[in-house]
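Possible race condition, two jobs.
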Amino acid sequence: MASTTPKASSNKETTNYARLCRLLVDVGTQALRDTLDVIHAPAILHAVLAANKPTLQGLRSRRIINATQWGKLFPVIPSAVSSKTFDITLLMILLRNLGGLPSPITGWDTLPAATDMSREADITRVKYLRNTVYAHAEQASVDDTTFNAYWRDIRGILLRLGGVRYKAAIDNLGNECMDPDTENHYKQLLSEWKKDEDNIKDKLKEIGAQIRDVGADIRDVGTEIRDFKKMLHGLTAATVTNRKESSDEGELR
């Protein structure tokens, strides 16, 4: 997928943005993968996927899961499936649709209340903060104050999802040097993740519109059937009346 990330020389604010992208893409992906592995143990993941294949096929037919992702879910040797091959978009889809994790109180697409510290709420927050960071994509830069606030929020979520073992990796990312090529790489990855999810939303809206159109067609057919029944009832009543009148005339003769 081609990147729309503007080329820019590296400075403190562009590096801030790239660090946030890397934190979300690298550590965020691992946190979601580890969460999936806890809910559905790797040793039985193939059985879980097989049991949920009708649901996943529905997602594939709606183009929410693409052909490449489908191949990762159902390799030639089923037991060879591994969450290590799943991209972050697919991990989000599976966490929402495989069962084992309740929907957040406010739903998957709404920022949870600050008091909701459930695992599902934090998964939703990962996506929300991804969108928040991506809002800076056009300039691809974040000032220090904003960076520190975003980093603190994302770090807290990832530590809750992955545990204290994530602390060292996160802290290292905060201090590690990044050359311009590395920065652009992570900016592109965050952009691709956002675009993949936007494509899914567009497909869902398209399907929703199609369903509404079908519903309207069904209502129109229902109206036509009711009108036809009324006409048929009128014709039947007229026929009965005519027969009765003919019978009455015969008796008078």
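Job #2 (started ~2 s after job #1):
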Amino acid sequence: MKNLVKSAFVALVVCVFAIPASAESLMIAPVNVQDTVVKKDTVVKEEAPMLLAQEKVTYTKIEVAEVPEKVAAAVTAKYEGYTTKEAAKGSDNSYKLIIEKGDSTLTVYFNEAGEFLKEEAPQKEGSALV
């Protein structure tokens, strides 16, 4: 057991102190996945891959009664006291709803599972749905 500990200690000391300074050039510096190492000290930066362009979501106006129960329940839970004035279904199966409470008007977006996506103030001119 003593010989094993002694051998391990000697190996550690040799690794730490006996590595010549020139061995530093053999060490590999971490690079990003997008980087390409051309030579020892040359790294060419490549652009990160862009996400594929998403198709613009188009909305088709629907009757408020056609909004799925999950979406209607989510709107009621999140926006207590608001009433849904207009509704539209998106090409990605999301729902765009204009809701009102007194003078306050909001455009809200939910997916078909009733999960909140975003909220914004509606456009002033014409219908904000389509």
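The first strand starts at residue 36 and ends at 39.
Logs attached separately.
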